[in-house]
Write a structure and sequence with these properties.
Rossmann fold, 3-stranded antiparallel beta sheet, alpha/beta, 5-stranded parallel beta sheet, globular
Length: 206
């Protein structure tokens, strides 16, 4: 599976690339990773090549709004785009989902979990979905439901990871890996969307 990683912080990009390259996809093969620090170059590569999954930082360019603009362009070019951010917030999560993101993950999780383990779990699920739906578009009714109900979800599941299927929360946990492990026994026909819900209490303190 081909993965494009984008982050304008060289050290962060290096660590993301190293983590992905050390793992294997659901097909048992090593990932082919292309790491770029320039989002404009990434957009050009997406025009010329096919990638199965894009992993991108949220804040790119001059400001946050430009980052969202880049995210929309990425999701238009690649059906599966994972956001990995150092500045999680409910508004950003909503905006990312509306822009077509598959998942919204924290670089420094509040629950103390391993950010790279969370990323690799999300990447594996994204690649598994890509294998089952190679021509899938970016629209996902569950993603739409999540961003429309994010305020309610934050009240009930703030700081946790939820699994959503058919516009309903079917499971949740504070630990991303534990949730994914429990979901492995589910039918391959219907795979839930997994989303990290920002904690409104933490956001309020900041």
């Amino acid at each position: 599976m081909r993965v494009l990683a984008i982050d304008d912080q060289p050290e962060a990009l290096k660590q993301i690339e190293k983590a992905i390259a050390s793992d294997r996809g659901p097909d048992g093969r090593a990932y082919e990773v292309v790491a770029l620090a320039d989002h404009n170059e990434a957009l050009k590569r997406l025009d010329a090549e096919r990638f199965d999954v894009v992993i991108t930082d949220m804040v790119m360019g001059a400001d946050e709004e430009e980052g969202l603009s880049v995210l929309r362009k990425l999701t238009d070019k690649s059906p599966i785009t994972i956001v990995l951010t150092a500045y999680p917030s409910i508004p950003n999560c909503v905006a990312s989902m509306r822009a077509g993101a598959w998942d919204y993950l924290e670089k420094v999780p509040d629950d103390g979990s391993d950010a790279y383990r969370n990323l690799l779990d999300s990447l594996r699920e994204a690649c598994r979905y890509r294998m089952e739906h190679p021509d899938a578009g970016r629209f996902d009714p569950d993603a739409k439901w999540v961003h429309e109900h994010l305020a309610e979800l934050a009240g009930d599941y703030g700081g946790k990871v939820v699994a959503v299927l058919d516009q309903e929360v079917i499971d949740h946990d504070e630990d991303y890996a534990k949730l994914v492990e429990r979901l492995k026994g589910m039918s391959a026909v219907a795979r839930p969307m997994i989303v990290s819900i920002p904690d409104p209490k933490v956001e309020a303190i900041e």
